[in-house]
Amino acid sequence: MRTVKIFDSTLRDGEQSPGFSMSAKEKIKMARALELLGADVIEAGFPAASPGDFDSVAGIASSLSGSSTVAALARLNTNDIDLARDALKGAKKSRIHVFIATSDIHLEYKLHINREELIERVKTFVAYAAGFTDDLEFSAEDATRSDLEFLIEVYRTAVKAGATIINVPDTVGYASPEDMARIIKRIRSDEMLKEIPISVHCHNDLGMAVANSLEAVRLGADQVECTVNGIGERAGNAALEEVVMNLKVRGDYYDADTNINTKRIITTSKLLSMITGVRVQPNKAITGANAFAHEAGIHQHGVMENRATYEVMTPESVGLTENVIVLGKHSGRHAFEEKLQEMGLSLPKERLDTIFADFKLLADKKKVITDKDIEALLKNSISEIPRIYRLDRYIISSSNMLSNTCCIRLKKNGEPIPEGTAMGGGPIDAAFNAINLATGLDLTLAEYKIEAVTGGADAQGAVSVRIRKDDKAYKGYGVDPNIFEASIKAYLSAINNMLYQLEQSGSAQGRSGGQ
Ligand code: KIV
Ligand code: ZN
């Protein structure tokens, strides 16, 4: 059976899409988890996009152990290629990934060059990049809408100039499996390209990304580019977990497998959701909450008799287990740390102390702590954003006849600041108004969501908010069995996130914001 390489682009194509942006620290955490997952190549970013992207790629490059190759994207020009090369300097194994569009529509309306000029560009800059690495990927953007014979000529030029792997992107998710098959077969039938490793990179605009990737594998593609939970531009990229589990479960058909440790799939997917704050749709294959849930009585009966009646793979094979950690008064820390390790997380000691203290507080309020409770607690801590403002104490009065009011006292950098007291349309509105008064910040609430972390009367409420200041939005997250407190924590977490980001971007306003 062949081994197909998994090229993960969660941190590049995935992160590029709205709502999925990650800080440099979060990207390093995710990259470590992807390495533990067994991704052969991790595309860390696009260094020329911004200094922040350059730093993230450099941070990831020097943080990984060397079992995964770190790739950086570059357009075909010397500046992009130089930046990719420099950002990858600290990596044990690295790849430069260059791309240029090859379809006539891109040539005419985006690049404003003709086919001959494109061939010249490929010749010159692929050779330039090849001077810095012996692992060089060449992508023909919009390959599936390109003239096939011209595409072959471009690939030949790239390989001649030093590309060691060629990529066939279905950039706009237009292809059918048959189209993919035709392209792969044509490349393989070419005398010069018949041995070159082929990669595929499929987008999901028509919901075909996984099917197209798998058809390419069936016809001999050596590498699949994909993202965790299928995140990515517009409708996303091929979902890593779906590609991998198709190959695992239907090895009989594809005659191919991957190096992915499938038991780490759920953990990695959850980490991504925790970092980005975006939940996976419940009915999503493999990683959705309902992917292994059997609701109908007839199905439940069948599964109890023999799981294979209604399951083509076991939940355990993707790492889905419902552990219940019961916290003893003095015995919790070890179990807690083990849980973090299982999640692929290593947090600095001070951060661990804080979360563990939160964990103990929760254990006082809630009898049974499940994995989901721990994940909810961790969500805020993963980003390692300093908690400048913290809740000290509050009183909320909620009424259907009198005003809703909140009086709140916060601590700023550990010291209590004067209370804020305010009314509001509801108790949570009153609390947020009181926080605005106490901090002196003029903020608008752009989004508020609440859901129960688990079932049961003592379930924690998980609140996600987005606040807006000067046309920029900042997300926050809070969790507590008391939904008022969860809301206050979420709002404070958004404020801390905002102050951190403003500080990072060197904004004087951020440094002096508040009292
Ligand atoms: O979709 C695409 O064409 C890309 C390339 C840069 C590989 O993401
Ligand atoms: Zn893409």
How would you summarize the topology of this molecule?
Elements (H helix, E strand, L loop, with lengths): L1 E2 L1 E4 L1 H5 L9 H14 L3 E5 L5 H13 L5 E7 L2 H10 L6 E8 L2 H8 L3 H16 L5 E6 L6 H14 L3 E6 L6 H12 L9 E5 L6 H10 L4 E4 L13 H10 L1 H4 L1 E2 L7 H12 L20 H9 L18 E2 L6 H11 L6 H17 L3 E2 H9 L9 E9 L6 E9 L2 E2 L3 E5 L2 H13 L4 E9 L8 E9 L2 E9 L2 H22 L3 H5 L3
Helix pairs in contact: 2-3, 2-12, 3-4, 6-7, 8-9, 9-10, 17-18
The site of 3-methyl-2-oxobutanoic acid has 9 residues, from strand 6 and strand 7.
* Global morphology: globular
> What portion of residues is helical?
40-55%
Q: Could you report the average pLDDT, rounded to the nearest whole number?
A: 91
Are any ligands bound, and if so which?
Answer: 3-methyl-2-oxobutanoic acid, zinc ion
- What strand order characterises the main sheet? 2-3-4-5-6-7-8-9
Question: What name is given to the CATH topology of the largest domain?
Answer: TIM Barrel
End-to-end separation in angstroms reads 64 Å
Count of distinct strands:
19
Gyration radius, rounded: 25 Å
Class per helix and strand makeup: alpha/beta
